[in-house]
Sequence to fold (170 residues):
Amino acid sequence: MDVTEDRLHDDDRHESEMEKLDRNTVELLNELRVAAVGIQVLFAFLLVVPFNTGWKKVTSFDRYDYFVTLLCIALAATLLIAPSIHHRLLFRRRQKEYLVTMGTRLTIIAMVFLTAGFTGILVLISHVVFGATTAIVVGTCAALLASAIWFGIPLYRRRQLRQFRGRGEG
Fold:
């Protein structure tokens, strides 16, 4: 939801623009904390994998899958860390609306890369343990499930809200 749409839904809160931005900042930071834990666990796992003794036996596919997955998780981590750095660099410069908007965009992009990384890890493990067929099934299911839950459901709800407001009932 962009800032303009957000204003339509926050009118009943009776808060000033700065109070709303403060609340939005706190909400964004809480969301970033949740995502950051997942990123840290996945990144730590990926950093350890090539140093295991069995790693020398993996296929070329597994090595490429690992590397692309590592890059996706690294990009997701970079994007999720960016809002806090932006905040520090723009602190007390009256840029809170910019920070909330940019933080929201970076978080959404980070979650796209996290979806790819999450899928890549499951494909890697499935391929090494069970083979190509299982990796294809698990990878497809993981990508579809994460995409549906993380993106599909809220985007569908946004569409419903637009249609609801379009009929003059919102």
Remarks:
- The mean pLDDT is 89.
- The two ends are 16 Å apart (CA to CA).
- The chain is about 85% helix and 0% strand.
